[in-house]
Here is the input.
Amino acid sequence: MHARDILKNKGNRIVTANAEMSVADVSRMLHDNRIGAVLVLKADGRIAGIFSERDIVTGMAKHGAAVTEMSVGALMTREVMTCQPTDLIADIMAIMTARRIRHLPVVEEDRLLGIISIGDVVKYRLDEAAHEVDSLREYVMTAH
Here is the structure.
């Protein structure tokens, strides 16, 4: 199974921000959309960084309450790991685990296709396991 299979099921809706937005505004976006991260895009649509709940916590620890008025660009993670639609789910899981990241943008030829979260991967694997159990159960029932 591949990254494109997850996007096919979840859709390719992407919540984005720009680097000039305030932490307070983007925090509201995270809350309103019930997500843990937004991609920060450059004017040309390419990825400038990713801003997550973890960046907010780090900002609070370093800057206190003043963090809410800071720009997302000052706190975002600039080195963004990405994957391609043809990457295997097992490889995506390995990247997320090794790099300790929870969100992975799916990019093909510099075009942003979607974003996969660790929750999406877990849901996909659980659905896949349930399907395997159902298939095995059906096989056992019809074999007798």
